[in-house]
Specification:
The protein is an alpha/beta fold and 313 residues long. The protein has 2 domains: 175 residues, NAD(P)-binding Rossmann-like Domain (Rossmann fold), CATH 3.40.50; 131 residues, N-(1-d-carboxylethyl)-l-norvaline Dehydrogenase, domain 2 (Orthogonal Bundle), CATH 1.10.1040.10. The longest helix is centred in the last third of the chain and has 23 residues. It is globular, with a radius of gyration of 20 Å.
Length: 313
C-alpha cells in the first residue's frame, strides 16, 4: 500500500516518519522550502516515545506526482486546505482513500465536494507536536494516537487494509466503526479548549485560579449541546473527561490556536469555532454565548492582524 503524506510538519512528519521507519511505502509531498530543509538535516523526530532520524525520506513535489496513491494523509491547517487539495489532486485516483487529520467537519465537506464522497475517510489524531526553528518534529506529550474509519460506519475491507499497515508502526492506531462520533467528540474538546484559552489569553490552570470553572464548563457544555443537536451526543465518559480536563487546577495546557494567536500567526477561528456555531440550534440566544464571544474575539484578532500586515506592506 502506497502512502502519500501531505507535508512533513508536526503531524505529517510524525506519523509519516513512524510509518516509514516501520518499513511502509511512504512518500512525503513537500514544498521547496521544507524539501531543502529535510535535504540538509533529514527528518528528525524527538519524542518521549523514541527519537527518530531518517536521513533521506522519499519525497516529491506537486508538479512531479507520477500518479495515484492508495492513501493520501492530509494534516494541513484548515486555512491552507484549498491550496493543499490542489497540490495533491494528481495523486488521487479512482481507488484512492483520503485520510484527513484536521479538526472539525468543514474540511470533510470541502474534500467531498472536490474528490467525491467515496474517497474521503474520517480521521483524527491525539498528539501534541510542533516544529522547532530547525524543522525538527518535537513530540511534546506521551499521546500519539491516530483514529480512522469509514464515515459510513463499520470496518469494511479497505479500512482493514489500512489497519494492517498501521499495526506495529510505532504509534497508537485505532480503526473506528463510528469515526464520525469520535470526530465530533474531539471537535467539542478542541473547540472548548481553543475558545477558553484564546479568549482568556492563558492556560486552563490560569482560568481555574481566577475562579472561572463555571465559564469553562459552560463553554464545554454548549459545544456538547451543539454536537447533540447534530445527532452526535457526547458519550458520558467523554463528558466526564472533558469536565475534568477543563477545570484541572494548575493545568499548564493551552490550545495550539492560542499558541498561534500569541505569536501573531493565522488561526483556525472559522473552521473550529465558527463552523460549530453555524450548526447550533437557531435562532441564536438573545444573550451571546461563551462560544460566540470567543469566536468574535478571534475574528477581531484576525481583523487586527490583517490591518498590521497591510500596513507592513
Amino acid at each position: 500500500m502506497r502512502f502519500l503524506v501531505v507535508g512533513a510538519g508536526a503531524l505529517g512528519g510524525y506519523f509519516g516518519g513512524r510509518l516509514l521507519a516501520a518499513g511502509r511505502d511512504v512518500t512525503f509531498l513537500l514544498r521547496a522550502r521544507r524539501a531543502a530543509q529535510i535535504a540538509a538535516t533529514g527528518l528528525v523526530i524527538q519524542s518521549p516515545q523514541g527519537n527518530l532520524h531518517i536521513p533521506s525520506p522519499p519525497h516529491v513535489s506537486a508538479e512531479n506526482i507520477g500518479g495515484p496513491y492508495d492513501v493520501v494523509v492530509v494534516g494541513s491547517k484548515a486555512y491552507d486546505l484549498a491550496s493543499t487539495m490542489d497540490s495533491f489532486a494528481p495523486a488521487v485516483g479512482p481507488e484512492t482513500m483520503i485520510l484527513p487529520l484536521l479538526n472539525g467537519m468543514q474540511h470533510i465537506d470541502a474534500l467531498v465536494e472536490r474528490f467525491g464522497e467515496a474517497r474521503v475517510l474520517g480521521g483524527l489524531c491525539l498528539i501534541s507536536a510542533t516544529l522547532d526553528d530547525e524543522g525538527r518534529v518535537l513530540h511534546l506529550n506521551d499521546s500519539h494516537g491516530l483514529t480512522y474509519g469509514d464515515r459510513a460506519g463499520g470496518i469494511p475491507p479497505r479500512i482493514q487494509a489500512i489497519q494492517q499497515q498501521f499495526e506495529g508502526a510505532g504509534f497508537e492506531a485505532k480503526a473506528s466503526d463510528n469515526v464520525l462520533q469520535d470526530m465530533w467528540e474531539k471537535w467539542v474538546f478542541i473547540a472548548s479548549i481553543a475558545g477558553l484559552t484564546s479568549l482568556m489569553r492563558g492556560s486552563i490552570g490560569d482560568v481555574v485560579a481566577a475562579g472561572g470553572q463555571d465559564v469553562a464548563l459552560a463553554l464545554f457544555d454548549e459545544c456538547a449541546a451543539i454536537a447533540a443537536h447534530n445527532g452526535f451526543a457526547v458519550r458520558p465518559g467523554a463528558i466526564e473527561r472533558g469536565h475534568a480536563f477543563m477545570t484541572a487546577a494548575g493545568s499548564p495546557i493551552t490550545a495550539s490556536m492560542y499558541k498561534d494567536l500569541a505569536r501573531g500567526g493565522a488561526v483556525e477561528a472559522d473552521h473550529i469555532l465558527g463552523d460549530l456555531l453555524s450548526r447550533a440550534p437557531q435562532p441564536a440566544p438573545a444573550v451571546p454565548s461563551v462560544l460566540r464571544i470567543a469566536y468574535v474575539h478571534l475574528k477581531a484578532y484576525e481583523v487586527q492582524r490583517a490591518r498590521a500586515q497591510a500596513a507592513a506592506n
